[in-house]
């Protein structure tokens, strides 16, 4: 079968779903690959690199969609792209079915099969190699620290030089899931003093192992909801948390917020008052902008200065590291294709008896198969 890689069309999206390194591996499984000309441009991957890796470059998106049996993409398809899906074809990309009911309907009407990389059952250990949410969150957490360092007027690490003594920067990280932990590790590697907080107690050891200090809220309540994710906390907890965060805001040079609760708006953790209490020149990077932001003063997609504090609400952190994120995403998708083609004969089999594949498959030959049935209790 033929795998097709179109150029992403979402404004500002710089990733590409397959980088040249992966193409020989797909060939080994028996697939040939066609790539839309320019698909890798924004990630600094040239058409020539694809050709050198063994892919065929075609001039436009229509050529990719009509010539391929399997389409690998990053962003959920636009309306126009969805109309290119055809019977017998399989699409693998982000879809976010819960947020995109209209898209699900139009894709189903096309009678194709759709695998949503965001619907992977993440708790299956076998699924980890396919987990693009984790790899993308890791890139975002790293990039958030780089953005903070870029906007901050001092070194991260402490230095003693002939020109004087420089104290290390103090970084506070709110929410220590995948992105937050990547930020802890990156900021600690750069020499900052790093503190982090999360409502899920289990992450404390991970924060420490990456070089940070875990700061607790003085209130007994566990924050784990279902599937390893967070829940909305009680009023009492939130009040105690605000008091602790107010202390951290006064002390920190940089705050990076990553806190999310599935299906809910992002918890507001950094108030306008806390921003006002920060030192001039401090930086906040709010990674929860798309879900409304963790900071009251965040403007999603923008960097603004308020009360002398730079507040960065970029929602395209992964595209700001497009080559890295494309490389990791490509590997995640390659692993999906590998799982779909255990026979290594260049033909995929969407096996609904396989837990990981069942979770990923949101439309099978035109029939909506999302949400999947709850896992069997053994
Ligand atoms: P996420 O992006 O939904 O949330 C980010 C973090 O914000 C979470 O750690 C959450 O606890 C925290 N948070 C939410 N509300 C908060 C609040 N009010 N105050 C402070 N922190 C708050 O989560 P994620 O990073 O995608 O993943 C969450 C967890 O899911 C991971 O840490 C991991 O343990 C689990 N997970 C498991 C697997 C696996 O088992 N293979 C794979 C991926 C993720």
TrEMBL record:
Residues 149-313 form the Alanine dehydrogenase/pyridine nucleotide transhydrogenase NAD(H)-binding domain. Residues 4-140 form the Alanine dehydrogenase/pyridine nucleotide transhydrogenase N-terminal domain. Its EC number is 7.1.1.1. It is an enzyme of class 7 (translocase). Keywords: Cell inner membrane, Cell membrane, Membrane, NAD, NADP, Nucleotide-binding, Translocase, Transmembrane, Transmembrane helix. It catalyses: NAD(+) + NADPH + H(+)(in) = NADH + NADP(+) + H(+)(out). GO terms for molecular function: NADP binding; proton-translocating NAD(P)+ transhydrogenase activity. It is found in: Cell inner membrane. It is a multi-pass membrane protein. One of its GO terms (biological process) is NADPH regeneration. GO terms for cellular component: plasma membrane. Belongs to the AlaDH/PNT family. The transhydrogenation between NADH and NADP is coupled to respiration and ATP hydrolysis and functions as a proton pump across the membrane. This is NAD(P) transhydrogenase subunit alpha. It comes from Usitatibacter rugosus. The chain holds residues 3 to 380 of 532 of the full protein.
